[in-house]
Design brief:
This protein is mainly β. The chain has no helices and nine strands. The chain has strands spanning 7-8, 31-33, 40-44, 54-62, 69-75, 78-85, 94-101, 108-112, 121-130.
Length: 131
């Protein structure tokens, strides 16, 4: 399934807008679910314009308690964020204020390592491009 990021218009006065409705697992192509015990990745494709990807929220869920996972975010081939996530992950999303901003023309890859056993890990994000 192709991933399409929303394009938001921001006035010169700054970031005064509402983000798109939060996505949970299964929402609008910005989500993925692992096979049992495996890791999961979501690739936000580079914009052809090119505009940078802005990542504002990450939602993680697991079907059961497993081993702690590692969340990494790459801007192209460069790792820009790494964190260990408890199992099960917190109920609230991981929110970046201001958003994590990628390099224009680069894809952004969000990866969560597997929780082991028969645990399914779901990953969903809120990301956007600025007009």
């Amino acid at each position: 399934m192709a991933v399409t990021l929303p394009v938001l218009n921001v006035p010169a006065s700054g970031y005064r807008f509402s983000f798109p409705a939060p996505l949970g697992p299964g929402g609008s192509g910005l989500s993925a679910t692992s096979a049992a015990g495996a890791g999961v990745s979501l690739v936000l494709p580079a914009d052809a314009t090119p505009r940078p990807i802005n990542l504002s929220q990450i939602f993680l869920t697991q079907s059961a308690t497993g081993t702690a996972a590692v969340l990494t975010i790459q801007d192209g081939a460069t790792e820009i964020f790494r964190a260990q996530i408890a199992s099960p992950p917190p109920l609230s999303p991981i929110t970046f204020v201001p958003p994590l901003v990628g390099t224009p023309g680069n894809a952004m890859t969000i990866t969560v390592t597997g929780a082991g056993g028969s645990v399914l890990t779901s990953l969903a994000v809120n990301a956007f491009l600025l007009a």
